[in-house]
C-alpha cells in the first residue's frame, strides 16, 4: 500500500456540526504537514471522513465499521462523538486498529481497564470529563483565595445539559464543592438539551442568589442564548459555560453579552509561542472564522500517531494486531508536546493526564485551561493555570464592582 488511510468519524451534520467542521480541518491540516515532511517512513497519509450526524451509538459504530471494512484504515483519529458511550470500541477492538478520540468520558477508563488486551488500541487524547468538575471547583476557589475575586457568598448554582457528559461534570462539581467551602444551593438541575430557551431555569436560579452559576451544557449556540438571557436580568455572580463558549460560534451569537464569561477545557490551544504560531497557520489555511482551539485536538493526535508509528517501524492495517500493538506501546511511551501542551497517556487508563488536576508537573500533563472572554471581538484569553496564563482575571461587566473588589493574585 503506497498510502496510509487514516479514518475520522466526524459530526458534519447535526447539533455539533460546527465542532465537526473544525475536527475535519484539524485532521486535514495535520495530514498535510505530516505528508510535507515525508509521511510515515515515506508513505503519505490519506484522510477519510465519515459523518456521524447526531453521534448516537448506531451512527458512530456504523462509521467505524465502514472505515475499517470499506476503507481499510490504519487508524481512526477524531474529535468527540458524545453519545456513542464507547459502543464503537467493539468493531474497532475486533479489528485491532489504533483509535484516538477526544470523547472526554470517564467511561473510557473503565472500558480499557476492564480488558486491556482487547482494548489495547483505544486511546483518549484528552482527560475525562470528571476532571472538569473537580478542576472548576479548584479554579473558583483559587480566584477567591488569591484575592482576585471576592464573592458575596459561598453559594453555587449548577445547571446541566441532558447529555451524560454534562451530567457527569455537574455531579463532579457537586461532589467536591463542600471540600473547598462552597455550598450548592441549586442543582445540578438537568435541562433537556439542545435548547435555546433558558428563561425558566434562570428564574429559579435567581431565587437562590448564587455567587457562581455553572452551566455544563456544551453546544455553542445554545449557551450563547443562555448568556444573552442571563444578561437580560443579570445576577451578581460569575458565569461559567462549558467548553462550547470557546467556539467562534458562541461569540457570533452572544456578541457583546459574551464579555466576562469564563470557559474551561481539559485540552485546548495554548496561547504561548507554539500555540499562537499554530493559530496563525490554521487561520491562514482555513480563514479568519475558523476555530484553531477546536481543530487542535485531532491535529495533535494525528502528529502523535505519526511519530509513534514511525518509531514502531510503520503502521498496521485492520487485523494486523502485532504491529498495531507496537504502535500502541509507542503512544504510551512517547510523550508529545503538542500545541495544546504535553500529551502523556496514563499506562492503565490510556487517556491523557491532566495538569494540575492529576499531576503537579506541567511538563507531564495536558493543562486544564480556563479562558475568559475579554474584549469579546478578539480571542478568549487563558487566565489559568500557572504557568500557562496570558492574562489576569477581570471582573465581568455585569458584576457590582463595589461589592467585589479584586486584589493582586498571590505569588504573582
From TrEMBL:
Q: Respond yes or no to whether keyword Nucleotidyltransferase is given for this record.
A: no
Q: Which CDD domains match?
A: PBP1_ABC_transporter_LIVBP-like
**Which residues are in the Leucine-binding protein domain?**
3-348
Q: What is this protein called?
A: Leucine-binding protein domain-containing protein
Species per Swiss-Prot/TrEMBL record = Methylorubrum aminovorans
Record keywords:
Amino-acid transport, Signal, Transport
Q: Which PANTHER family match?
A: LEUCINE-SPECIFIC-BINDING PROTEIN (PTHR30483), PERIPLASMIC BINDING PROTEIN OF ABC TRANSPORTER FOR NATURAL AMINO ACIDS (PTHR30483:SF6)
- State whether keyword DNA repair applies: no
Report the family membership: Belongs to the leucine-binding protein family.
Amino acid at each position: 500500500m503506497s498510502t496510509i488511510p487514516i479514518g475520522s468519524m466526524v459530526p458534519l451534520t447535526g447539533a455539533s456540526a460546527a465542532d465537526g467542521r473544525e475536527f475535519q480541518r484539524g485532521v486535514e491540516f495535520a495530514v498535510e504537514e505530516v505528508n510535507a515532511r515525508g509521511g510515515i517512513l515515506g508513505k503519505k497519509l490519506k484522510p477519510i471522513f465519515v459523518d456521524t450526524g447526531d453521534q448516537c451509538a448506531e451512527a458512530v459504530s456504523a462509521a467505524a465499521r465502514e472505515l475499517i471494512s470499506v476503507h481499510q484504515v490504519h487508524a481512526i483519529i477524531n474529535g468527540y462523538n458524545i453519545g456513542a458511550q464507547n459502543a464503537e470500541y467493539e468493531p474497532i477492538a475486533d479489528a485491532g486498529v489504533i483509535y484516538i478520540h477526544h470523547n472526554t468520558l470517564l467511561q473510557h477508563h473503565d472500558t480499557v481497564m476492564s480488558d486491556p488486551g482487547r482494548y489495547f488500541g483505544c486511546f483518549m487524547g484528552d482527560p475525562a470529563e470528571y476532571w472538569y468538575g473537580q478542576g472548576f471547583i479548584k479554579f473558583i476557589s483559587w480566584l477567591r483565595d488569591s484575592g482576585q475575586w471576592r464573592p458575596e457568598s459561598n453559594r453555587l448554582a449548577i445547571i446541566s445539559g441532558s447529555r451524560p457528559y454534562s451530567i457527569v461534570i455537574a455531579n463532579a462539581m457537586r461532589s467536591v464543592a463542600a471540600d473547598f467551602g462552597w455550598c450548592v444551593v441549586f442543582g445540578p438541575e438537568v435541562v433537556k438539551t439542545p435548547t435555546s430557551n433558558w428563561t425558566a431555569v434562570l428564574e429559579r436560579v435567581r431565587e437562590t442568589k448564587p455567587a457562581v452559576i455553572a452551566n455544563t451544557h456544551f453546544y455553542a449556540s445554545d449557551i450563547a442564548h443562555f448568556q444573552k438571557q442571563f444578561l437580560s436580568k443579570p445576577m451578581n455572580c460569575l458565569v461559567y459555560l462549558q467548553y462550547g463558549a470557546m467556539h467562534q460560534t458562541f461569540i457570533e451569537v452572544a456578541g457583546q453579552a459574551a464579555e466576562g464569561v469564563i470557559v474551561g477545557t481539559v485540552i485546548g490551544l495554548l496561547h504561548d509561542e507554539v500555540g499562537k504560531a499554530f493559530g496563525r497557520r490554521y487561520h491562514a489555511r482555513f480563514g479568519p472564522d475558523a476555530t484553531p482551539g477546536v481543530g487542535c485536538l485531532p491535529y495533535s493526535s494525528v502528529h502523535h500517531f505519526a511519530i509513534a508509528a514511525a518509531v514502531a517501524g510503520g503502521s498496521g492495517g485492520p487485523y494486523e494486531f502485532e504491529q498495531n500493538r507496537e504502535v500502541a506501546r509507542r503512544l504510551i511511551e512517547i510523550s508529545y508536546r503538542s500545541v495544546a501542551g504535553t500529551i502523556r497517556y496514563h499506562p492503565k487508563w490510556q487517556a491523557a493526564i491532566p495538569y494540575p488536576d492529576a499531576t503537579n508537573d506541567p511538563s507531564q500533563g495536558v493543562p486544564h485551561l480556563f479562558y475568559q472572554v475579554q474584549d469579546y471581538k478578539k480571542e478568549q484569553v487563558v487566565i489559568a493555570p500557572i504557568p500557562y496564563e496570558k492574562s489576569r482575571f477581570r471582573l465581568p461587566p455585569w458584576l457590582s464592582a463595589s461589592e467585589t473588589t479584586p486584589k493582586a493574585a498571590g505569588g504573582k
